[in-house]
Fold each of these.
Amino acid sequence: MMRDGCWDLHQSAENGAVARGLVAGELSKSAYITLVSQMYLFARRLDEAIRAHRETQPLLRALIDDEQLQSPYYEADLASLGVDAASLEPTPGTADAIALVEHVEAENPADLLALHYVREGANNGNRHVAKRLMQVWGQSDLAGMTHLDPYGKTQRSKWDAFKATLNAQPLTDEQKRSLVATGRAMFKAVTAIHRDVESRSTTA
């Protein structure tokens, strides 16, 4: 349901200029840094919300461990890129994405899983993006891009285990529909961040 219910937005996100630039290895380094900076702010707020509710929400506790929290990977990447994380300010799209986290946290914290599901699933394609960027930028390691490939060779097995655990949860139809709706909101939020990055790189 998550895959099928979000497929149209998934395809739309992949066809955006920033996503296409990443896959092709053609995104400028400055645009990449802007993207990492804004996604970090979003990831940090989502991680905070997950930590705050994980012990009281069985879905979050069953599916999300500390290794999956992304802000530490982003922080390491920003340091490698020479960016002071404390100095960052959100673009409008990022501010809206953070507001989405806060809305979900207040209304139904179990649905934080849907926000996390989308970013966790993105790691499958992001591994290939990392390899392409390493090639284009002449890097022999993942400095500045560990958030794209946090699990290395264990990515596929971890994703399969994540999906199996999710499928085993005793969810009602209403809970499933709510998760799908929140997953769709996540795709829209990330797309808005990408548009901000595209706009800034166009006007720079």
Amino acid sequence: MIGYQIRKRQRVSANICVVGCGHWGKNLIRNFSKLGHLRAICDSNTAALQAVGQQYPGIRLYDTLAQALADSEVDAVAVATPAEQHHHMAIAAIEAGKDVYVEKPLALQAEDGLEMVDAARERGAILMVGHLLRYHPAILKIQELVADGTLGRLDYIYSNRLSMGKIRQEENALWSFAPHDISVILALVGQMPVQVTATGGAYLQPNIADVTVSNLLFDRGTRCHIFVSWLHPYKEQRLVVVGSKQMIVFEDSRTENKLVLFDKNIEWKNGSLEARKPEGTPVPFDPQEPLGRECAHFVECVLHRREPLTTGDEGVRVLQVLQACQRSLQLNGEPVQVNSMRSQRIMTM
């Protein structure tokens, strides 16, 4: 294993193969190519593979994962296939001596995620999960404001991720949209929730929820709710973080002033609490594309053997929360305790 790691450190290119050239795979291909670290593309759909391959002359094309993993010049794979394939593809890549980036969710079961984490640890491989929002400059700015005490104690957080489509058949809206929000909330609060509740409705397909609302309770008293839907008349991506001192709103669906800081403006007058409408102050942040940052981070981790910001362990924690929410959803909103398989402590930037 030591020789394997030394060989990796000597590489000047990460030599990445993107597995899956669908909608999101094309974005990964574009970014890794721009960074100069795209070595190959793999997809079982040969027509789609050839079509994408024409845009990247000189890049190797493979129609099976086995072919890609047999390429000794491929150092790492980025898996952008349907979620049910993540587990076995990642394990195969790790066993072939490759580093692995896996799009969210890491897997469909926390137990499978743990197996992926353990396999990577045993082989000395990098395992990173694609929780894109953790690389968004606005989210990084919010984390900074939480860490330096600007917001004060975190009272509650809510996140809306709403749109009309893309409607999926293999997973519900909770599993499709909420991993992003859960990963951010866990990073901001710095611990796992102790209990969740979730409700929702399936209106287009039997047993596949189009709308869900999940509530997370943390033992420090912080409460969070996550509202996701692909059956909504307009797009809304909004995160509101309310602290004991100040509040901040990140609205990514806006064209400008996406991140705004508010004073609470609540005071006692004549024996009662009065609230004045707060004035918002726009907060500047780096405009760099989050996916570009995420891909560059994976490259750095591969080349310099660094632990990713979004580790496989984080992916497992998100899966544990998702599974608890799914259980509550099936129980029509009954509270469910979160089964944390490992330490409740969460590392943040």
